[in-house]
Specification:
With about 290 residues, the protein is mostly helical. The protein has one domain: MetI-like (MetI-like fold, Orthogonal Bundle). The chain has helices spanning about 30-35, 40-60, 70-80, 85-115, 120-130, 140-145, 150-175, 180-185, 190-205, 205-235, 240-250, 250-280. The longest helix has about 35 residues, at about 85-115. The chain starts with about 30 loop residues before the first helix and ends in a 9-residue tail after the last helix.
């Protein structure tokens, strides 16, 4: 057979068999969409924890050691209705915000100096190695000597609790900025603070937000612990003093009501403030899943 005239393979069609109808198990559309809501899953988890609390408290049957969830809820509602818990929470949050924003400013100054000069890097690494392991509450006696029985003592320990974790996370985020972005900023003539605010901070925002959340958690628990001492010393205070005072008077349900309010405020800040900030920035920009 000549290679100039190769054989031609005949064409044919093969009919395909019809697919058999197979039952597919699936959730109803409305249940599927409902279960995708994060707030619903978290609410169910909290309801389960509340139920376990109620069962264990009734089994123990000692309101002095562990009141039931319903008794704690009644004490919480009564405290909110009378306005006592609202006033205490307002006092605590006003002090917390002062210390929190003071720590943010101090951390920004330190990290800006660290990314700009070798002296700043040495200063940041030395100070964080010295003071980051030091508990903020351990500085309260020294703060009382320096600032007296006033708000300044609490603000001082709060700045300490926020400054170091935020500075470490921010500096780590700055170090992780790609060199391409750095070169692009320098090509546009950005130097100093303009380079930090227009290049480094937007690129390191996921790490900065993580530092802000860690700093918030540290500051919140430090404030409550400090108010236990500060309130006992000055006769006034916020939620920490409310818990301490009711513990002395053996109102255990009100003690747990104060603790529950502390937890609720933490959940509100985490799931509303920080979640909204992440959704409007890093998730919207595709920097975080």
């Amino acid at each position: 057979m000549s290679t100039l005239n190769p054989p031609i393979r005949p064409e044919y069609e093969r009919p395909l068999e019809a697919l058999a109808a197979a039952p597919a198990e699936r959730l109803l559309p409305w249940t599927s969409r409902l279960w995708e809501q994060g707030w619903l899953r978290k609410s169910l988890l909290l309801a389960v924890l509340a139920g376990l609390w109620e069962i264990f408290a009734r089994w123990q049957d000692n309101d002095l050691l562990l009141p039931t969830f319903l008794a704690t809820a009644r004490a919480l509602v009564d405290g909110l209705a009378t306005g006592e818990l609202l006033v205490k929470a307002q006092i605590s949050l006003s002090v917390l915000l002062q210390g929190y924003f003071g720590g943010i400013v101090a951390a920004l100054v330190l990290t800006t100096l660290a990314v700009s000069t070798q002296f700043g890097r040495d200063l940041l690494s030395t100070l964080t190695a010295m003071f980051n392991p030091l508990p903020a509450i351990a500085l309260l006696p020294l703060a009382l000597l320096w600032f007296g029985l006033g708000r300044g003592s609490l603000v001082f320990v709060l700045i300490h609790s926020v400054l170091w974790p935020l500075a470490l996370n921010t500096y780590a985020g700055f170090q992780g900025v790609p060199e391409t972005l750095r070169m692009a900023g320098r090509n546009y003539g950005l130097r100093g603070l303009r380079f930090v605010f227009q290049i480094l901070i937007p690129a390191a925002l996921p790490s900065i937000l993580s530092g802000l959340k860690i700093g918030w958690a540290f500051a919140w628990r430090t404030l409550i612990a400090a108010e236990l001492v500060f309130g006992a010393s000055s006769g006034k205070g916020g939620l920490g003093w409310f818990i301490f005072q009711n513990r002395n008077e053996l109102y255990t349900d009100r003690v747990f009501a104060g603790l529950v309010l502390v937890v609720l405020i933490g959940l509100l800040v985490e799931n509303v403030v920080f979640a909204t900030l992440e959704r409007l920035t890093v998730r919207r920009w595709g920097m975080q899943r």
